[in-house]
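A.,

Following up on our hallway conversation. Structure tokens first:
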């Protein structure tokens, strides 16, 4: 293994050394002892955030999720004490007196508002302000304003800290004005806020998943001293891949495109240009053994270069840092990819949550 300059220096430079990550492989039994800090998760999805907090020792007291089918998966795996299945807008309308007391005693309010409208792979500006349905068919809702709806939830519950996660595209191009408004909305309700861009390949996750994290607090905390730098060695696909990929969906036409791809191609676009003289198949990305796997999306058309097959269930679970014994309720690869693609990787939340513990426990020595 190649050493960096800091690996060859003394212990005084340990904070600069790259670390190995092996906690991407885990089971539910691996949760540590509860540290007493309480979290409520909104936009809970399959529970990626929930699992991350629990891996850091937090007590996740409940969740809010609009999608009934996704909530069934959440219930099967996390058994929350409090469970709200509704639009967050409707949750905000519930009188405070009708909500459990512990929701007003939170250490962290967590939220990952749906982010497809800001994705660089999507239509972006053309969808802003327009209503949208997810594939499960819940009621239509605008998505680009959900961050501000979530901040209304913050105002309602008044947690000590807030962790809000979104796609990297939120900070790019015309979307930057949303970041400015997020800061403004937090400041208007008495919270300090700062954001960081975290990259999965740098924090011990076997996936190139880039996410923006907004961390806000009403406590007397200097967020400029909050360290969100992580130095982990990249985890290449060869270190986590399963023995065999999946041949489901490999049609003769798709196989022909794959056979005409060249090593190093990011996806099947070049092969499509060669055979059909048009640009398409951008979302059919290659996964190379010597590289970190690309982002797992809700559709997950990623192709293993080693055997020219789609990712297996185990591949998707490991790349997403989900527990090996997660119950997806359906073994359909489409379902598994959808749950993992829509959820924040648990290990990403674990890294962030661990950094907040000293501030919540009051032993950060500021």
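Then the amino acids I'd put at each of the 366 positions:
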């Amino acid at each position: 293994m190649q050493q960096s300059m800091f690996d060859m220096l003394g212990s005084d430079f340990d904070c600069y050394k790259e670390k190995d990550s092996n906690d991407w492989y885990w089971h539910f039994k691996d949760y540590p002892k509860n540290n007493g800090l309480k979290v409520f998760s909104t936009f809970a999805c399959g529970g990626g955030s929930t699992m991350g907090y629990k891996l850091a020792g937090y007590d996740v007291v409940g969740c809010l999720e609009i999608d009934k089918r996704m909530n069934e998966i959440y219930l099967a795996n996390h058994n929350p004490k409090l469970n709200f299945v509704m639009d967050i807008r409707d949750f905000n309308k519930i009188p405070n007196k009708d909500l459990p007391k512990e929701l007003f005693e939170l250490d962290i309010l967590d939220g990952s508002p749906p982010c497809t409208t800001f994705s660089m792979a999507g239509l972006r500006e053309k969808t802003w302000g327009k209503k949208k349905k997810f594939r499960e068919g819940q009621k239509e809702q605008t998505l680009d304003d959900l961050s501000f709806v979530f901040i209304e939830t913050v105002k309602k519950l008044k947690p000590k800290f807030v962790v809000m996660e979104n796609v990297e595209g939120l900070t790019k191009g015309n979307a930057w004005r949303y970041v400015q408004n997020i800061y403004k909305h937090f400041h208007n309700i008495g919270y300090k806020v700062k954001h960081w861009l975290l990259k999965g390949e740098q924090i011990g996750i076997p996936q190139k998943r880039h996410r923006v994290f907004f961390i806000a607090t009403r406590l007397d905390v200097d967020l400029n001293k909050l360290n969100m730098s992580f130095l982990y060695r990249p985890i290449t696909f060869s270190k986590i891949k399963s023995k065999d990929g999946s041949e489901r969906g490999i049609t003769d036409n798709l196989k022909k495109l794959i056979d005409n791809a060249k090593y190093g191609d990011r996806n099947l676009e070049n092969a499509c240009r060669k055979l059909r003289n048009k640009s398409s198949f951008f979302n059919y990305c290659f996964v190379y053994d010597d590289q970190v796997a690309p982002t797992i999306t809700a559709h997950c058309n990623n192709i293993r270069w080693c055997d020219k097959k789609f990712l297996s269930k185990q591949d998707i679970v490991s790349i997403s840092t989900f527990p090996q014994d997660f119950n997806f309720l359906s073994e359909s690869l489409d379902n598994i990819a959808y749950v993992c693609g829509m959820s924040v990787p648990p290990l990403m939340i674990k890294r962030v949550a661990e950094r907040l513990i000293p501030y919540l426990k009051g032993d950060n020595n500021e």
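DSSP finds ten helices and twelve strands in the chain. Curious whether your intuition agrees with the design.

B.
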